[in-house]
Amino acid sequence: MDGERQALLEFKHGLIDEADRLASWVGEESDCCNWVGIVCDNYTGHVSQIHLAALEGHCDTLDYGTEKEYEEGSRQRLKGNLNSSLLHLKQLRHLDLSCNDFGGINVPNFIGSLGNLRYLNLSTSQFGGTIPPQLGNLTNLQVLCLGSFLENSYYESTILNMQWWSSLRRLHHLEMSRVDLSKETAWHQVINTLPSLATLGMSECQLLYINPRVARLNVTSLSFLDLSNNNFNSSVPRWIFSATSLVSLDLSGCNLHGPIPSSVATFHNFTSLQLLHVSENDFMNSSIVLEELSSISGNLISLDMSYCGVSSLVLNSLHNLTSVIRLDLSGNQLTKGITKLLLNICNLKQIDLSRNDFRNMSLTNLLENLFKCKKPALESLVLSTSGLSGHLPSQLGQLEHLEHLELYSNHIAGTIPDSIGRLSRLQTLDLSDNLIFDPIPYSIGQLSSLEVLRIYSNLVNGSLPDSVVKLSHLKELVISNNSLIGSLPESIGRLSLLKRMDLSYNKLSGSLPNSLGQLSKLEEVRFSSNFLSGAMTETHFVKLVSLKDLFGGGNKLTLRPRLVNWIPSFQLWRLNLNSWGLGPQFPFWLQSQKDLVLLDISNTGIYSPMPPDSFWRLLPSLNFLVMSHNHIRGTLSSIPATLSLLDLTKHLRCHVLHYLHYFLNGTFQPTFDLSNNSFEGSLHHVLCSYGEKDIKVLNLGNNHLSGVIPECWEKWPTLKFLNLEKNNLSGGIPRTLGSLSMLQSLNMGGNKLSGRLPASLVNLTKLNIIQLSGNELNGSIPTWLGRELSFLRLVNLKSNSFDGNIPHEICHLTHIQILELSDNNLSGPIPSCLNNYTVLSGKETVVNALYRTYSFDTSTEVIASDSLVRKGREDKYSTILPQVLLLDFSNNDLSGSIPSELTALSALQSLNLSRNQLTGRIPEKIGGMKALESFDLSVNRLSGELPMSLSNLNFLSNFNVSCNSLTGRIPSSTQLQSLTESSFFGNNLCGDPLTNRCTSVEVTDTKDHKEDDRSDGADWALIISIVLGFVVGFWVIVAPLLLSRSWRIAYFRIMSELKYLIYDAMHKYCFSMFAK
């Protein structure tokens, strides 16, 4: 016994026990059988069992609610090394070290020499490396657990060869989940050598092969089989159906295909099966398979058939699931509700029908059979993202056992019924992303068990009811993106368990209650973009010891602590107070926030010098810093090495070299944004020095930079976003820009750049956005722009001197959303192939992410923007830029007719072809461009009548065809008749809104014919007079022109000049009217 005690003390010596769990393991005289975790044999007195599992062995259900809970759980885990002194415990039969953290060390070889072990559990203890085959010596083992229950473990164990398993013939429980078995292909043959195996867990083992041709294995004793989340990509193996004793079968995420041969029995022999999880396998989408499943459904308790592609028609083959209490049919193709033939819905406790297609059903109809139950047992109802419509029925209050109700991302409208208050057991209520309006009912306060309340992204109005403070178990309150008004309840501090509160993007007003500072468990609070005002003091934060994220920007609050040396009780990770009143002095209490990752104090009225270097050294984790729109004097001379975004826009003036020097010469390469300042100087030294950079975003737009753009872009290989717009840069576009193979967005607009587009830009194959407007670029638009840069979404070349035709290759830009070529010298016809544009024709959806070149999980993003002319005025678009669909070829010298193919662009919102030389008629099918909001054809040479289909353009708010040669009646529609006369000026049009009324030519002609019919005869005197007058006049004018060549030349010269004078005068007038 002394030797065993000493062996245990040596074993303890190799461990790190932060929680002092082994405090009883002391002394040379104490009985080790009384030590924590040690069990001795009642007869021999020798140590037979070691139980040192952390967290009471429940590491498979870890759910740390707070950082403190995580830290405490981490302390409870033993760390260090395993000492081979355990070899002295000759009678050791049970060793449990699960749920600890051994930091990736290998499972020691010596454990294979503990020959009496019956039970070995090392699961979820962060072992790594190769599991030693010496464990095959433990021939008495009955239970072996080496897997992990952690989804994102830092460490991974591997077994290169499973043959040593064959020695463990007494095994009845084998758990290897998340152990890498990818090197083993004949694993099923090894399983065949374990005749006593009852439980086999091999989930997420990276198994790639499952032999579908093996008909049978020796697995008749197997009760629990888990092969989930191994991507076999194979047909269903026959041997699985030979495991006739199975009680639980989990094949989720195995990517098993059908059909199953008719000669193979499937579920018919599984008479004891209680749990069947087969999600993400399309072999279940079979009427034959579901009919077989129905034959053994009497014992089935839990069925998961999610994401199997099952339709309502196929599901009709499944019936008689009378014992099922948990049913998951989410992610299928169901269009109808659950029938009575399928199961006894009154006994059902959990049902998930989310992500199906119930677009033609209301919530009431879908739950019709459930509402007929006298005593429904339902505890969990999940119907999210299914296209459901209708309203929230009052019958929901009948589901008195309901604990979880999730209906988010549907089209449910109306009010929240008062009957919701009857669900006293409800823990989760998620109604987010619907069309719910009206105030939240006062009865919400009766949900005494509620822990999670989410109603964000709806149309909820009214104030937050005072009864919400009665929700004493509430941990999460999210009602952002609604229309809440009024102030927060004064006693909001009574929600003592609240961890997350998000009320941002509402219309809340007034001041924040002092009781907010009593929420000691609050970790995240967001109330950005409301109308809150008033002063915040230390009282509002007094007990917020758990607070990590505070987002309150976009309000008119102030925070000026009374104590000069105030040190908050919290340690924040992210802080956004933009638009608050923090100044005029810099808030030096921030230096106490040593864990800050994001800091946004933009537009906060700070009028003070830049804090010293010592201040920034106290923020070692700072990653995002936004201090724009203040009046901060001086420079940030010591930039934190961790910084990846710096925004100091507005009110800073110095040489750009200063900041770039610190960034480019540092060890960490950040996102760099110094736009909208007054930086001046050349870029050459900065951009071409310091070697290769790892910067992804460089934004120096809207400054006073000058000189040429240097030729050294090969040193910026990772750049994705480059903005140099609105400076005084000159010269040509550098050819080395073509080396930026990762570039997605290029903006050099508003400078004095000249010359042609360099051919090297053809290498920018990932480019989504190119903005070069407002320069002096010339030459033709290169054909490679459309042929090679086919991923472009936004092309802006306006206000340059490009000439020649618009190349036919421009039609290869199939994903284009904005094509701006106005105010150049382009000539020739408009290409007839513009119907190739898939986004503009509505065949492809807009991808918003392509306009956010580098975004963060924060309130700060780098978003592309552009100034565009829509609806007759120029505006700058940023956030909604991805939603703008525009073609602008105006103010060029384009000729020919408008191609009819253009009318296929049914999603186009703005089309401007004004101030060109276009001729012919407006295409008859123009009304097919139903999304048009702005349409400008003014100052061209168009003729003919306005197409009647124009009346189909229901969204048209800006329309201009002035200064053409159009005739006839203006089509009738609310949009066209609401316009002003200037939209039609300079034509021969009639009808509303013009004062020129139309006359019915057809009616007049008919009347004249009738009068002719009634006439007794022709008026010959009148006819003779007209003929004589014509003959005399003709010869008086024409005879001299025929006889004299000089007269003839002079006459036609005068007439020609007169024609052009009239035409010129008309167009000058039209231009002046257009400008007005």
Structure characterization notes:
- This protein is α/β, with parallel strands linked by helices.
- It has five domains: 2-172 and 181-187, Ribonuclease Inhibitor (Leucine-rich repeat, LRR (right-handed beta-alpha superhelix)), CATH 3.80.10; 210-344, Ribonuclease Inhibitor (Leucine-rich repeat, LRR (right-handed beta-alpha superhelix), Alpha-Beta Horseshoe); 345-474, Leucine-rich repeat, LRR (right-handed beta-alpha superhelix) (Alpha-Beta Horseshoe), CATH 3.80.10.10; 686-828 and 847-883, Alpha-Beta Horseshoe (Leucine-rich repeat, LRR (right-handed beta-alpha superhelix)), CATH 3.80.10.10; 885-1010 and 1058-1076, Alpha-Beta Horseshoe (Leucine-rich repeat, LRR (right-handed beta-alpha superhelix)), CATH 3.80.10.
- Helices cover 13% and strands 20% of the residues.
- It has 15 helices and 65 strands.
- The chain has a 36-stranded mixed sheet, with no helix packed on it. It has a twelve-stranded parallel sheet with strand order 40-42-44-46-48-50-52-58-60-62-64-65, with no helix packed on it.
- The N and C termini lie far apart (105 Å).
- Mean pLDDT is 85; it is low at 651-658, 854-860, 1002-1019, 1059-1063 and 1071-1076.
- The chain crosses the membrane at residues 1020-1043.
- InterPro entries: Leu-rich_rpt (IPR001611), Leu-rich_rpt_typical-subtyp (IPR003591), LRR_dom_sf (IPR032675), LRR_N_plant-typ (IPR013210), LRR_R13L4/SHOC2-like (IPR055414), RLP23-like (IPR046956).
- This is Leucine-rich repeat protein.
